[in-house]
Amino acid sequence: MNKYEELMARKNEIMLKSVGIDYDKYEDGKLSFNYEKLMEDIGYSLEEIESIQKEAGVGNTPLLELRNITKLARKVSKTGKAARIFVKDESCNPSGSFKDRRASVSVYDAMKRGYKGVAAATSGNYGAAVASQANIRGLRCIIANECYDSKKIGQPEILEKGRKCEGYGSEVLRLTVGPELFYTFLKILEETGYYNASLYSTYGIAGIETLGKEIVKECREALGKEPASIIVTHAGGGNTTGTARGVIKTGAKDTKIIGASVDLSGLHMASDIDFNKKSFTTGHTGFGIPFMTNPDRSDVPRSAARPLRYLDRYVTISQGEVFWMTELLAQLEGLERGPAGNTSLAAAFAIAQEYDNEEILVVQETEYTGAGKHLIPQLNFAKKNGIEIFVGNPMDQIPGKNIILPSHPELVSVKDMDMDHLRNSYIKNSLKKVADNKIQDIDFDFLVDETKLSRKDVMKILKENNIQIE
Ligand SMILES: Cc1ncc(COP(=O)(O)O)c(C=O)c1O
Question: pTM of the entire structure?
Fold first, then answer.
């Protein structure tokens, strides 16, 4: 065995030491595991999480009505109607994004269990959140950041996020795209004995539940009704999962959860050539689809982010439309915010037009902006990489070839992804674990829960794949 294989063989042991969760305990079928039990065993109630967050300056962010953007949506909507658009201003969290909610619980847990430091593998915002929370709790912090192509060139946005982590005094390992990240991260955990503040652990996901709860509570109290929909910027699926779980816990049954990602179809995330051809570093389909259809590809054995359980709808929006929305938000509402939150906002602008005026649509986050995160350095970088940038119809966009800023607000639209196709892919990926074409009842129930499909539909997919139930 070479060094890489040796380290990988010790993966489970390293994970157990660094997250303190014995994932094997939850394995119960051939492909299933007890998700709800894993989430219950976290040991902190939602109320306890709220007080952990309050102590660390996290949460209770303002819910702002975007009156001028709503007005514009009504002007261009075919029916003259559009729901009221609100945004939860998550940039008001200590490190400037909802990721503080996620980091706050993990870092608190690390402190309580006596770890000296925390480590996280991240594209950036989460790193800043972990670094910031580590400072509040007096722990050391190491961030592994996949930020360069093989020529050591990185996008302004991702470099900006790395600088921010360093600004908090954490150690940042800047890595090139590819399998290096997971190997390096495991090595860090083994060598330092630090806590794995994984984006995908139960702690991180439970930390986001407060966001869903706040949204519903504030809408009920201030507006006298629940939101018709909440639009969530979607990448690895933690944001969607945590928000939806919080919404469910408040008893808001009719609120729909809509995930929105930037359309980067055709670009390969692990490809060195494509790495700098995308102008968004998170909230895009390059994470959204692989993690949705195979959630356990993350840095813990079982991801607590299970988006297909919660999504009512998943839409994409083009890069140009998100850049356009970033400008619009600043100019019409006086809010200069970063790209990830503006992804769901751009989608909300189109989706609001499907609803009546009195309905409420909540975009569940903003993120901070500044320096490299700003749209001008990102667009300049794209130009340098041969991407054509022009004003026109975003429908004509080709990710990696051009970025089209909409010439009229009427042209802003979302594309609905085929949820059944995604669910089908999820089941097919899960079945790869099954060697003998037979699963158990418990696996069948698990697949129904994981996909929100009917029992009949799951059975049909199983039959198509020659799978029997033992
Ligand atoms: C500000 C912001 N919004 C949304 C997301 C997407 O969250 P998730 O990966 O949990 O889907 C990210 C993730 O990197 C983010 O940093």
Answer: 0.97
